[in-house]
Design goal:
The chain is mainly α and 315 residues long. The protein has 15 helices and 2 strands.
């Protein structure tokens, strides 16, 4: 059973998350500089905020960003970008609230990093049935150096982690509820939490493509959980029962993530200034907007797989 004390079960994780939030928001505007790949994602998110899609920015853009020279940052439409738009859309929210400042462009990632601490504490509490162990897990993330740095820098990685963690948490809650229903002799019912998890995984992929690896991983994990639940309920053929109730996996692990990914490109579809929007930028063979978009994504995949440039930050 879950530990008693619903109030304590929320109060202590929230306290740990508050500590994580202090470490992530304290002097968030420092350094007053453009850090690492903020030089790409800040002007990209600025462009999405004002034009709905990424535009090319000035070559020496960092001083312009630091001085808030908004009129000089973007020079022409149709920038080729290597990552999907959703992470930059999220970052644009911070700029919309607080302006083109280091605090503004880092605000959204700091929020995601803080919420990740709360989710970790609650998920670990549910998995271990211990508020103490859950808060310990949350505290470890709150104090983790890499998590703090990633939560204070306007780059995509903490947002991928946020969506993957949210999906995992939803699947853990679904696992517990499913086992309870089977143990009580009831019908499994529709798995709405898995639907939500699929959308979160789609958001992870729409932030950065490496989120895609969690689709087969979580699909296999949930299938194993279902088989285990049927075995615990005393079913004579738990494997067959688990496979039979796994019909929802293609929906939440394939269809819905794909739908969320396509939806993240709404700005590209809704405007006329996105890269390869008319199919001309990549050879001019596109016969429709959809085929132009598919060609663009194929080019992004080829770019990512073929990238061999030495990076001095590789440590």
């Amino acid at each position: 059973p879950m530990p008693d004390g619903r109030l304590r079960g929320w109060a202590w994780p929230l306290l740990v998350a508050a500590l994580g939030g202090v470490l992530r928001f304290w002097r968030l505007g420092l350094p007053h500089a453009v850090v690492f790949d903020e030089t790409y994602y800040v002007p990209d998110s600025f462009s999405i905020l004002h034009h709905g899609v990424e535009w090319n920015h000035a070559k020496k853009v960092n001083p312009l960003l630091l001085h808030g020279d908004a009129s000089k940052i973007l020079v022409s439409p149709a920038e080729y970008v290597a990552h999907p738009p959703l992470g930059k859309v999220v970052m644009a929210g911070g700029q919309w609230l607080f302006g083109l400042t280091p605090f503004g462009w880092r605000f959204s990632v700091a929020v995601a990093g803080t919420l990740a601490v709360l989710m970790t504490a609650r998920i670990a509490r549910r998995m271990t049935r211990s508020t103490l162990l859950g808060c310990t897990a949350g505290l470890l993330l709150a104090l983790d150096g890499l998590a703090i740095v990633m939560s204070r820098t306007a780059i995509l990685d903490i947002l991928v982690m946020f969506w993957v963690l949210a999906a995992f948490g939803l699947l853990v809650i679904d696992r517990d509820r499913y086992r309870i229903r089977l143990g009580d002799g009831g019908k499994p019912g529709f798995r709405w939490l898995r639907i939500a998890a699929g959308l979160c995984l789609g958001c992870a992929c729409a932030t950065k493509w490496n989120g895609v690896w969690y689709l087969p991983a979580f699909a296999g994990l949930t299938l194993a959980w279902d088989i285990s639940a049927w075995r615990a309920s005393g079913h004579p053929r738990p494997g067959a029962a688990g496979l039979r109730t796994g019909w929802l996996i293609p929906l939440w692990a394939i269809v819905l993530p794909a739908a969320a990914y396509v939806a993240s490109w709404t700005g590209w579809f809704a405007t006329s200034t996105g890269y390869n929007r008319n199919g001309a930028a990549l050879g001019g063979h596109a016969t429709s907007t959809l085929s132009a978009w598919l060609a663009y994504n194929k080019s992004i995949l080829g770019f990512g797989l073929g990238l061999r440039v030495h990076q001095t930050y590789q440590s």
